[in-house]
UniProtKB/TrEMBL annotation:
Gene3D superfamilies: 2.60.40.4370. It comes from Rhodamnia argentea. Residues 13-120 form the Transcription factor TFIIIC triple barrel domain. This is Uncharacterized protein LOC125312443 isoform X4.
Amino acid sequence: MESNVMRDAVEIEEEYVLLDLDSVSEQFDILPNAPYVLSGLDTLSPILVIDNKLKLIGHYEETIGTCIALTEEDTSPIVPEEIGPSEVNKSSGRCNMNPNLCPSKQVKPVACIDKILKFKLLVDTNVPDASAQP
């Protein structure tokens, strides 16, 4: 009976990791929808293979301070109704849409990032060097 209680009491802790491809994206063109395989997240050096061509090795860096991932959504530009009577403002009880204003963005937090996983090109030592002479 105690083992059932212990199993139910186990909390699952989520940890969010940011994949940083900045150092690689300058050297290689990575398509936004390219298939990828990420393995070894529980190791010190995870491996990321993109499009079965590009093989990267990563290392973790702890975040300093608070690192938050955000998302943005388009919202309509709204001009609040003028307070008080006016000849110009004849719309009572509603906000006026101003077509001359640019659409605004609403930013919402998605997750708190715990670690950053930075990647660099993995040089595979098992592949023979084509430039080597026999």
